[in-house]
Design goal:
Belongs to the methylthioribose kinase family. The chain is an alpha+beta fold and 403 residues long. It has two domains: 102 residues, Phosphorylase Kinase, domain 1 (2-Layer Sandwich); 283 residues, Aminoglycoside phosphotransferase (APH), C-terminal lobe (Aminoglycoside 3'-phosphotransferase, Chain: A, domain 2). 52% of the residues lie in helices and 11% in strands. Strands 1-2-3-5-4 form a five-stranded antiparallel sheet, sandwiched between helices. The chain has a three-stranded antiparallel sheet with strand order 6-8-9. It has a two-stranded antiparallel ribbon with strand order 7-10. Strand 8 and strand 9 form a beta hairpin. It is globular, with a radius of gyration of 21 Å.
Length: 403
């Protein structure tokens, strides 16, 4: 039996059980442990360890040296350290909105955390057309608490720069820079374009020089604007929910960047749920109820974020110049503009690029899928090109319903 203390290797289910028994002190000595590898993401191995006697369970998340989505992506296992650190920090800033972290192992590159088996992945729940009336309130609180408190508005500037240094994440940022900001907007060989959508993509996306220029501006802002500590991959597959709780998981893409990046990802993935509902629900009343809920959630998420941000800003900001008249309005408007732009980028890249979402790919009828994808591309393009015109939730809804 290995001691797990000498060098890294990717664990099997049996080895994850051995690791739990020899390296952790979470379960009693007589526990009957079983393991299931449940990872279905693009990067990591996720083991659920359960004691068959008590029902107690934990998650061991292990980072490998290459992405599961493709061997082309070489990724540093240090992302697991980053994830552990940010979960602990977010647990303080937004208590109750992230899983508890029990242990981090720098040799095996794994993090041991709370099992959220009683929760549902939000994307999966949306595919079943379930609704969560408290979600907008929960996610807006999480976003305000994590984005404002990690910025120069609140932190001592030296302390903030130390955090920037701690969360430098070049390999994961490179994936974002490639898959979100670059590859979808030219005929990159790695793109995967649905046949029914290709003609639109070639003419309206790849052939649009104005759009290309704006994405270039946005890419350089992403790379250089160390505004807030981001989750970095905040889609509905990274959010667990119950009727009363919301938990944000998988912050391994965390780094310092534009605050609107996280908000824009949330809004775009709500929109994917919306297009799935429009194209898969055949009962008109059910379709209007679900899609109406999604639109209202988009509006509430943006407007509640603004409302809570303003309140927290007035209460928590320590930077002298941030108190100047008009600065709050300027700062918050820039965040909403970035939200619109990133929402547009995410809508485009999930249709054109390598990493897809089930909301779209599970639309079975080819014509409906093409229609859904073209809708996403039209909305995405509008949001990118006209991002300065968005300042509240209703502005977003107007673009969606008129597209």
């Amino acid at each position: 039996m290995t001691t797990f203390t000498e060098k890294y290797f990717t664990m099997t289910e049996a080895e994850a059980v051995d690791y739990t028994k020899t390296r952790l002190s979470i379960f009693p000595a007589d526990a009957e442990l079983t393991c299931e590898e449940i990872g279905d993401g693009n990067l990591n191995y996720v083991f659920r360890i359960r004691d068959q006697k008590s029902g107690q369970s934990i998650i061991i998340k292990q980072a490998g040296p290459v992405a599961r989505i493709s061997d082309e992506f070489k990724v540093s296992p240090d992302r697991n350290r980053i994830e552990s650190d940010i979960l602990r920090l977010q647990g303080k800033l937004a208590e109750g909105f992230v899983p508890k972290v029990y242990h981090y192992d720098p040799i095996m590159n794994c993090c041991v955390m709370e099992d959220l088996s009683d929760f549902d992945i939000l994307r999966t729940a949306f595919l079943k057309k379930r609704t969560f009336p408290k979600f907008a309130d929960h996610i807006s609180t999480f976003l305000v608490n994590t984005l404002l408190a990690t910025s120069d508005l609140v932190l001592n500037h030296k302390e903030k720069k130390e955090l920037v240094k701690s969360f430098i994440n070049p390999e994961l940022c490179e994936i974002t820079e490639d898959l979100v900001y670059t590859e979808p907007f030219y005929p990159c060989p790695r793109n995967e374009v649905f046949d029914g959508t290709r003609a639109f993509v070639e003419e309206e996306i790849w052939n649009d020089k104005a759009l290309a220029l704006e994405t270039a501006k946005l890419k350089f802002d992403f790379m250089t604007n160390a505004q807030s500590l981001l989750h970095g991959d905040l889609h509905t597959g990274s959010i667990f929910v119950t009727e009363t709780e919301t938990k944000v998981i998988d912050p391994e893409f965390a780094f310092y960047g534009p605050a609107g990046y996280d908000i824009g990802n949330v809004i775009a993935n709500l929109l994917f749920a919306y297009v799935n509902g429009r194209h898969t629900l055949t009962n008109e009343a059910e379709r209007e109820q679900f899609c109406g809920y999604i639109l209202e959630t988009i509006k509430q998420t943006i407007d509640l974020f603004k409302e809570k941000f303003i309140s927290a800003y007035k209460r928590e900001v320590t930077e002298q110049v941030a108190s100047y008249e008009g600065f709050l309005d300027y700062y918050l408007q820039r965040i909403i503009e970035d939200t619109a732009a990133v929402c547009g980028l995410e809508l485009c890249r999930r249709v054109i690029g390598l990493a897809k979402v089930k909301d779209v790919t599970e639309i079975k009828e080819p014509g409906s899928r093409a229609e859904a994808e073209i809708f996403c591309l039209k909305v995405g393009k509008t949001l990118i090109l006209n991002r300065q015109q968005y300042s509240n939730g209703e502005d977003f809804i107007k673009t969606i319903v008129e597209s």
